[in-house]
């Protein structure tokens, strides 16, 4: 049975639309922390010119495989088991890397490992896109985001909403240069970076 995340059903169309300008040229994209796999299936179905590679830790693999197999899309190969804290980055031949709702769910060392993996997988001038809730100038952007942050820190004090400026600086340490940020529904943002050096 395929796992279903209701928030994916709500936000997959806006995410796909926001990513389209970076996907329309085609190429290979890697999704880190694919979760259920719903985003990847939805995007691959809308962007047949892009090969979309799902990946996540071993515990998520059965769900990813169920979504990928059921979709039967030629541009959606079988998912990879990939733990950014232990595994080497994939070969540096991806035109883009995407991650959704991951940076606030994990602790700082995992965020650093994810950024390192993203940078290591990208070709020169490749795109890195990170979607999720972020604080701005140290402030919550909604009461819902504040409540989410409290819940996250209650389960793991090292997790929680990151400030946009912090993420931009962190990414720069891995040669990911900030390009732009786009407002998304439900007080989320899409941060776009490009690989330099």
Question: Topology of this protein?
Answer:
Elements: H1 6-23, E1 27-31, H2 38-46, E2 50-53, E3 55-56, H3 61-71, E4 80-81, E5 94-100, H4 108-121, E6 122-132, H5 143-155, H6 164-172, E7 176-184, E8 188-195
Parallel strand pairs: 1-2, 1-5, 3-4, 5-6
Antiparallel strand pairs: 6-8, 7-8
- Under the CATH scheme, which class? Alpha Beta
Percentage of helical residues?
Answer: 25-40%
The structural domain count equals 1
Mean pLDDT: 95
Structural class, from helix and strand content? alpha/beta
- Count of individual helical segments: 6
CATH topology: Rossmann fold
Terminal-residue CA separation: 43 Å
* Unreliable sequence segments: none
CATH architectural group: 3-Layer(aba) Sandwich
- Radius of gyration, in Å, reads 16 Å
Proportion of β residues?
Answer: 15-25%
Strand order of the largest sheet: 2-1-5-6-8-7
Shape field: globular
């Amino acid at each position: 049975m395929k796992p279903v995340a209701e928030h994916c059903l709500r936000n997959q169309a806006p995410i796909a639309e926001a990513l389209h300008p970076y996907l329309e040229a085609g190429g290979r994209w890697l999704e880190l922390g694919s979760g259920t796999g719903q985003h990847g299936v939805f995007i691959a179905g809308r962007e047949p010119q892009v090969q979309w590679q799902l990946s996540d830790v071993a515990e998520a693999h059965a769900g990813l495989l169920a979504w990928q197999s059921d979709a039967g899309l030629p541009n959606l190969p079988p998912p990879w088991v990939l733990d950014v804290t232990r595994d080497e980055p994939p070969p540096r031949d991806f035109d883009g890397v995407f991650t959704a709702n991951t940076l606030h769910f994990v602790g700082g060392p995992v965020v650093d490992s994810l950024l390192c993996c993203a940078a290591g997988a990208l070709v020169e001038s490749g795109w890195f896109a990170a979607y999720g809730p972020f604080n701005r100038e140290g402030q919550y952007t909604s009461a819902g985001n504040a409540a989410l942050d409290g819940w996250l820190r209650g389960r793991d004090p090292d997790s929680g909403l990151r400030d946009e400026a912090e993420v931009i600086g962190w990414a720069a340490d891995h040669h990911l240069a900030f390009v732009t940020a786009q407002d998304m529904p439900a007080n989320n943002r899409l941060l776009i970076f490009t690989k330099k050096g």
